[in-house]
Specification:
Shape: elongated
Structural class: mainly alpha
Strand content: under 5%
Distance between the termini: 100 Å
Oligomer: single chain
Number of strands: 3
Length: 342
């Protein structure tokens, strides 16, 4: 019996040495599988993650946008860091995944990395997609997400009212950089394009539409979805203003766009100067465009088409915002009328 145990012990030591030489995870399941000759049957989490990302990369940009691939690569790095932090290991086998692993990973995102609820859940949802791939390929028998909720909380979509947008448009700015940032922001308010889309606009994107007027024809960077928008007079005015700007001539773009971080920093200054008590960001312009169009009677289907939303349900959140605004204003009006009548 002792001789048999010595043989097993030696096999375990040899398995440990082989795993270390192969830069693979050394733990009880890994050693057991290696000793039992099942080493090739076990797949690790990061191995499957890399496999998933490779498949996704082959479908960019036909099915996935480059930004989606970046998000999954980022998620992989975060999961890798968590495994190192929690398990002091470089990787884990799929069989080690369970409800506790996911719950503690969610806690790690929130408490250690300081992510909010929705950011944490988005990372978890990316991991869930990778785990689903493992389940479909029979590399994992039980889905560890079976009883884990991955619901994103509704986010309040702030936007500028028509009066606030006018305040920004009419603001006298003597500093060139602030004037330029204001123009870029206002352009987005009248087209609905996000920062990354505005930054890549060139003359090739401007064409005459079916109505004979100028349109922007664009596939959005985020979703690769079609987002064609007729140019309103204010947007055309801004394009003409920067037609011969040194930055646009050098880059071949329609507008002189700097980094998103700088734009948002300058927008804070503009908000203070305009007396607007809102967290002004470039993306808020996109929300402003959506609510402005709906307020002016443009159908939700048309707004969804211009925003490049693949599903009109994504646009419905703006309709709810407009509905709430109407309700608040009507309630206030009823109160004023009630006071006047009494």
């Amino acid at each position: 019996l002792n001789e048999y145990l010595d043989v097993i012990r030696n096999k375990v030591y040899r398995a440990q040495r082989e795993l270390l030489e192969e830069n693979k995870t050394v733990n009880a399941p890994a050693l057991r599988n290696r000793v039992q000759g099942k080493a090739n049957e076990q797949k690790s989490l990061l191995e499957v993650f890399e496999y998933h990302n490779t498949l996704m990369a082959d479908k960019v940009p036909s099915e996935y946008s480059p930004l989606t691939l970046v998000r999954f690569k980022t998620t992989k790095e975060h999961v890798k860091a968590y495994i190192k932090y929690k398990y002091k290991s470089d990787d884990l086998y799929l069989t080690q995944l369970n409800h506790r692993f996911i719950s503690e990973l969610d806690h790690y995102f929130r408490k250690v990395r300081g992510c909010n609820h929705n950011t944490s859940i988005k990372y978890i949802k990316n991991l869930k997609k990778v785990v689903n791939l493992a389940v479909k390929n029979d590399w994992l028998r039980k889905d560890p997400f079976d009883k884990f909720s991955v619901k994103v909380k509704p986010v309040h979509r702030d936007f500028l009212s028509e009066e606030e947008l006018n305040q920004i448009e009419e603001l006298e700015l003597k500093i060139d950089r602030l004037d330029m940032v204001r123009d870029l922001f206002v352009f987005s308010c009248y087209t609905g394009y996000a920062y990354v889309d505005v930054a890549k606009l060139t003359k090739r994107n401007i064409k005459k539409g079916v109505d004979g007027d100028l349109w922007v024809y664009l596939n959005r960077e985020k979703t690769s979805g079609k987002s064609n928008v007729p140019l309103l007079p204010k947007a055309i005015e801004i394009l003409e203003k920067y037609e011969d700007h040194p930055i646009t001539e050098e880059k071949g773009t329609l507008l002189p766009v700097s980094s998103n971080q700088k734009l948002n920093a300058y927008l804070k200054e503009i908000a203070d100067l305009a007396g607007i008590d809102k967290h002004l960001t470039f993306h808020l312009a996109r929300h402003t465009f959506a609510t402005l169009m709906l307020t002016k009677g443009v159908s939700i289907e048309t707004v969804a088409e211009m925003l490049g939303h693949k599903d009109v349900r994504t646009t419905q959140i703006y309709a709810k915002v407009v509905e709430k605004k109407v309700s608040e204003e009507m309630t206030a009006l009823k109160k004023r009328l009630s006071i006047k009548a009494s």
